[in-house]
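re: that chain from earlier
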Amino acid sequence: MPLTPPQLTALRALLDRLIPADDFPGALAAGTDHFIVALLAGDCTAEAPTVALGLTQLDAESAVRHGQPFATLPSAAQDALLTALEQNHPATLWPAPLTASAFLNRLIDLAAEGFYADPANGGNRDAASWRMIGYDPRLPAKPTAP
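^ sequence. v structure.
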């Protein structure tokens, strides 16, 4: 079940707030959106309807609170809406068994997975996050203290 254009737009706006660009590329420049879409079409196919429903509900939340889709809100309004969802304080009724906080937490997990993954898996384009944290897979791992 592919995401609709409005759902893709909401996903990209959400990812841009979860991992925004700063001195390093953010989620979108690192291809995290493409990673998640591919994951939902592959290994996480069973989750695709729930994620799609959550993205539609994210826009419904935004419409009730601000009269416009999530992606068109200013960053501060997006952050405030996401904080309310994280605290499970939606303004709309989310269809059971989906809850606002569970949806957001799952998208946070998927965003982290795509952003920090091995670039060979389709996310972390050009190893952007690895460069950000100083990781070089060609170097031996540093021993950890006991």
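The two ends are 47 Å apart (CA to CA).
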